[in-house]
């Protein structure tokens, strides 16, 4: 056939990529891989097969690590850690740079190996995965270089246990390993059982980059090995995978003091407005749901389309689907490769079977392939609209107005990503802040870059990977002392009762409320004087307080300037009552007058600090390598449950309430159990300072009794505890219900003389990354 004839027919011909080098590499290891521990491959142990899903052929045999193997890997990482950290940022930067260069030099081997092992099209592995891997190591080499200047005092966490999934095997390794190593940590990583080969190839390569032995260890195996890594003596766990396993991990390590980040599933909306460029939106859908066969945590898997264009759009989409080529992943002309494993294909089939909507499917060959699928006309509550399918299946419904689009989009337990397609920039920028998602793409989709944070809210997990914000997950501040429990002053043998009886109520929705249970307790001074009574809040009071906080959502939308003004006003009113507060602190704690006065003036100062920050915690405009910017916006977390510290009854309270308020959150704060009256006095100050009802809710009572309720409450977005009571484990374990963020002291003291602004700012905000077309 002549070239002219080919142009005439545009007939499709295969363009196969050779697998010879990748198979040679496997053969070079005898087709059997041991674990990579302490800089060397060990002898193969109990083996399992890893297969090419496109053909079913066995590619290699890989070791199922034992508990002892995991312990040995962690021990090697532990030994290597101090030396790696001492090497310093610039020293580590050189090794990360070498890794980036080596990935580039071996790019084709990695791409082919990835395609063989996972079934993803070579085009994607080559043009997207491997390029992003190299970019990630370059970027983090830069962060290591700058760390000492930009993150003064930050120290490595220690040994990180990292467990990754099969959908982007090498890219997920890069996302986990690069920031950990950059900040001076060492790593034990477990790749997914279906796709271990590129991690082993990377281990091979790391020796050439001069990575000291023990800094990176790879243990292969199934979920049991993942469990062993999580349970091992590691300082941090980083996990990407299913929400179900994420919850199990959250529970498993509750109270252990291990840091945790979770990147979990999603059901990300893809919203098309009626003014969108429809053909480009169709191409967007191709990238959203048929990229990697929809086996992408941030896949745009829920199509929300404005009613007036729905028929036209679906017609165009069906026409495009008919042209998608599904088949041999090593064929460079292929749009969609194999599903990672017959088990996963079975899961997809089971979910789609018997569904109620109108189903359109493209073509797919026999074997472990699944056709591109569109299902329209589903109710928002349909399981297929709610549950992650993790396959090439797009489900959809229609909407009429922008606000309906937002409420449908947010009608999900997930909150990873969202895509908005419109030619109207005002509309896009109006919708983006309203979406409950960690990432919003405007007129584009599935864009990722090392400079931009990636991660979600709600049951999509917490923490960000990439960018400066991703580093927080891999560093820690100075060591803190153990916190001694502070008990309430016991009833004296001989009570001094002078003043008129006074019972401080709870403060809920801007009103004083009697405790539902009808119980209260006396508060004694160390000298035996009865200072008053406080109510003992129960779970119903807590529910009411959360409801009030939810209802005060307008606070999150007020201008930062207004929030600053109100915090200044609180400071002013507290200052006017300084003597009274100082006396109260002295009476409750027995502190000397000058110390109590100092605590009040430090509290006023602290309010000034947070008023100052209210309008200054700017986001960043990230220079991502596309024609656009990624705006990292610091958004409020929402409703934060707080357990106030006991050490500094007023300063501690102000130090936790004010930053949350400054960043636009509403709080439910459980006052110090030992010294609650500073909090009940403080709400009177709030009442006179224009703080809207419901923004701050104050409960008094038993922190131990309330911790599990707060931790498990489905309408609370984050819980902080600085209490001296032993409640960290309860909060972390219960938080697994909706995977809320937790920030708990694990029995460690804090210096309340220090505003620790960066910590509080980060904990009071979620970074939403909004990708918008911009520039030339
Ligand atoms: P998974 O969450 O079970 O596996 C992810 C990783 O965790 C693998 O390395 C696995 O060996 C490990 N693992 C499994 N159980 C563990 C445990 N108890 N403790 C520690 N590590 C453990 O995902 P799976 O079964 O492969 O896929 C199931 C569903 O999960 C998919 O259909 C999809 O919906 C979702 N998924 C989501 C991913 C995402 O990136 N959001 C990635 C992979 C799966």
UniProtKB/TrEMBL annotation:
<dbReference type="InterPro" id="IPR016162">
    <property type="entry name" value="Ald_DH_N"/>
</dbReference>
<dbReference type="InterPro" id="IPR029510">
    <property type="entry name" value="Ald_DH_CS_GLU"/>
</dbReference>
<dbReference type="InterPro" id="IPR015590">
    <property type="entry name" value="Aldehyde_DH_dom"/>
</dbReference>
<feature type="domain" description="Aldehyde dehydrogenase">
    <location>
        <begin position="527"/>
        <end position="747"/>
    </location>
</feature>
<dbReference type="InterPro" id="IPR016163">
    <property type="entry name" value="Ald_DH_C"/>
</dbReference>
<feature type="domain" description="Aldehyde dehydrogenase">
    <location>
        <begin position="47"/>
        <end position="475"/>
    </location>
</feature>
<keyword id="KW-0560">Oxidoreductase</keyword>
<protein>
    <submittedName>
        <fullName>Aldehyde dehydrogenase family protein</fullName>
    </submittedName>
</protein>
<comment type="similarity">
    <text>Belongs to the aldehyde dehydrogenase family.</text>
</comment>
<dbReference type="GO" id="GO:0016620">
    <property type="term" value="F:oxidoreductase activity, acting on the aldehyde or oxo group of donors, NAD or NADP as acceptor"/>
</dbReference>
<feature type="active site">
    <location>
        <position position="263"/>
    </location>
</feature>
<dbReference type="InterPro" id="IPR016161">
    <property type="entry name" value="Ald_DH/histidinol_DH"/>
</dbReference>
<dbReference type="Pfam" id="PF00171">
    <property type="entry name" value="Aldedh"/>
</dbReference>
<dbReference type="InterPro" id="IPR011408">
    <property type="entry name" value="Aldehyde_DH"/>
</dbReference>
């Amino acid at each position: 056939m002549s070239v002219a004839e080919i142009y005439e027919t545009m007939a499709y011909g295969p363009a196969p990529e050779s697998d010879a080098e990748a198979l040679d590499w496997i053969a070079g290891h005898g087709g059997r891989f041991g674990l990579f521990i302490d800089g060397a491959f060990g002898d193969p142990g109990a083996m399992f097969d890893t297969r090419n899903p496109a053909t079913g052929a066995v590619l290699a045999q890989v070791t199922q690590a034992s508990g002892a193997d995991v312990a040995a890997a962690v021990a090697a990482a532990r030994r290597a850690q101090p030396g790696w950290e001492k090497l310093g940022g610039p020293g580590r930067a050189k090794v990360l740079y070498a890794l980036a260069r080596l990935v580039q030099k071996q790019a084709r081997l990695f791409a082919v190996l990835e395609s063989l092992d996972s079934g993803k099209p070579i085009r994607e592995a080559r043009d997207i995965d491997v390029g992003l891997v190299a970019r990630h190591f370059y970027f983090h080499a830069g962060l290591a270089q700058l760390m000492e200047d930009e993150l003064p005092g930050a120290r490595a966490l220690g040994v990180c246990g990292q467990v990754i999934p099969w959908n982007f095997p090498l890219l997920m390794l890069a996302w986990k390993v690069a920031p950990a190593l950059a900040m001076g940590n060492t790593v034990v990583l477990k790749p997914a059982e279906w796709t271990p080969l590129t991690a082993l190839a990377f281990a091979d390569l790391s020796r050439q980059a001069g990575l000291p032995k023990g800094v990176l260890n790879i243990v292969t195996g199934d979920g049991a090995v993942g469990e062993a890594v999580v349970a091992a003596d590691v300082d941090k766990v980083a996990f990407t995978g299913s929400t179900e396993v994420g919850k199990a991990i959250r529970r498993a390590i509750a109270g252990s003091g291990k840091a945790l980040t979770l990147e979990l599933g999603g059901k990300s909306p893809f919203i098309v407005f009626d003014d969108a460029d429809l053909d480009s939106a169709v191409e967007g859908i191709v990238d959203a749901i048929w990229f990697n066969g929809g086996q992408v945590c941030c896949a745009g898997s829920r199509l929300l389309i404005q009613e007036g264009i729905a028929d036209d759009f679906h017609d165009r989409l069906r026409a495009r689907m008919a042209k998608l080529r599904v088949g041999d992943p090593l064929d460079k002309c292929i749009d969609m490769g194999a599903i990672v494993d017959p088990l996963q294909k079975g899961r997809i089939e089971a979910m789609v079977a018997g569904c109620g909507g109108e189903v359109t499917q493209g073509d797919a060959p026999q074997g472990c392939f699944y056709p591109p699928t569109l299902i329209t006309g589903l109710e928002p509550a349909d399981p297929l609209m709610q549950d992650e399918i993790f396959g090439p299946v797009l489900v959809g419904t229609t909407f009429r107005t922008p606000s309906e689009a937002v409420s449908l989009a947010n009608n999900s337990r997930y909150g990873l990503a969202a895509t908005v397609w419109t030619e109207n920039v005002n509309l896009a920028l109006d919708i983006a802040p309203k979406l409950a998602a960690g990432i919003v793409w405007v007129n584009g989709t599935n864009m990722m870059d090392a400079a931009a944070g990636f991660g979600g809210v709600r049951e999509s997990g917490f923490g960000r990977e990439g960018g400066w914000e991703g580093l927080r997950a891999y560093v820690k501040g100075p060591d803190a002392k153990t916190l001694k429990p502070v008990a309430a002053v016991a009833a004296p043998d001989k009570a001094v009762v002078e003043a008129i009886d006074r019972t401080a109520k709870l403060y809920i929705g801007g009103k004083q409320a009697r405790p539902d249970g009808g119980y209260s307790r006396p508060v004694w001074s160390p000298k035996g004087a009865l200072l008053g009574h406080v109510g003992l809040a129960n779970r119903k009071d807590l529910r009411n307080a959360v409801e009030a906080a939810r209802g005060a959502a307008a606070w999150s939308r007020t201008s930062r300037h207004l929030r600053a003004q109100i915090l200044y006003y609180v400071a002013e009113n507290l200052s006017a009552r300084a003597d009274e507060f100082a006396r109260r602190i002295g009476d409750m704690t027995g502190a000397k007058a000058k110390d109590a006065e100092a605590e009040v003036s430090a509290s006023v100062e602290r309010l000034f600090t947070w008023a100052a920050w209210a309008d200054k915690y700017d986001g960043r405009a990230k220079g991502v390598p596309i024609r656009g910017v990624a705006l990292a916006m610091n958004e409020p977390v929402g409703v934060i449950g707080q357990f106030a510290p006991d050490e500094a009854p007023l300063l501690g309270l102000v130090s936790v309430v004010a930053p949350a308020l400054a960043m636009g959150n509403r709080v439910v704060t459980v006052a110090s159990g030992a010294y609650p009256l500073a909090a009940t006095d403080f709400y009177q100050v709030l009442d006179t300072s224009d703080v809207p009802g419901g923004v701050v809710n104050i409960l008094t009572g038993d922190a131990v009794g309330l911790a599990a309720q707060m931790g498990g409450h489905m309408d609370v977005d984050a819980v902080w505890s600085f209490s001296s009571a032993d409640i960290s484990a309860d909060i972390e374990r219960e938080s697994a219900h909706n995977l809320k963020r937790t920030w708990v002291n694990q029995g460690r003291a804090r210096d309340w003389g220090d505003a620790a602004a960066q910590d509080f700012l980060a904990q009071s905000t979620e970074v939403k990354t909004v990708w918008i077309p911009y520039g030339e």
